[in-house]
Sequence to fold (267 residues):
Amino acid sequence: MSGRLAGKVALITGGTSGIGEATVELFVKEGARVAFTGRNAGKGAEMVGALGANARFFQSDVSDESQIKASIDETMKAFGRMDVLFNNAGGPTRGEVDTVTHDDFRHATDLLLGSVIFGIRHAAPIMKAQGMGAIINNASVSSNRTHMGEYLYSIMKAGVVHATRMAGMELGKHGISVNCISPGAIATPIFFGGSAKAAAMEAGKADAKLEKLTSNLSKATPLRRSGLPNDIAFAALFLASDEGRYINCHDLVVDGGMTAGGRVNYE
Fold:
């Protein structure tokens, strides 16, 4: 690796599976000191053991603002600064157009949109004092098109995209860029209930599901392959590095071209 993040400190939420896990590993390889959060303490400890002193894990639930603030505070205690925040954590939602409940709405809002808004809110003063920073939010192609995600999931991800633009306009003058990434057909456990459900499955079952999912998703893109977590990790690396410093308020769609047209079927 080329050390594209040498000297930088990053905080990555949802870092114990899927896109988050791949990004934690890549950022450490590229020279960053990385704090990451998640709910799976065992997996977090395992990752720290493999990655070494440049990785720190803090157990956290991003649907709780106090825990978001605590993870940012812990990152500052551990490393003394924070150059990059990747608001990556998320999960599936509940409720359809004619069945959604207020509890469904609150769950989706806190998990997918509130986590981004409050991540930015508590990172901004630190980055302002530093005079620089890069905030990256995980959005989705479902924010741009219908029928590409669950009802509330899609609505909240559309909110993430616009929150990115609004925050980037406000924070740009302080040397802080705010961008988001909209993944397309990326094979991760979110498609079969999220990382917690995947971790609870019997040995081999989650891997088999992921293998089948990867095959199925390959039919959804002109490239005829599924996206993988590293495809998003490398996009985040670009936006976090000095190479991406002039990009702001941007939604980087990483979807193999699936949103360029209608449903793709190459069978």
Q: What stands out?
A: The domain at 9-254 is CATH 3.40.50.720 (Rossmann fold). The mean pLDDT is 92.
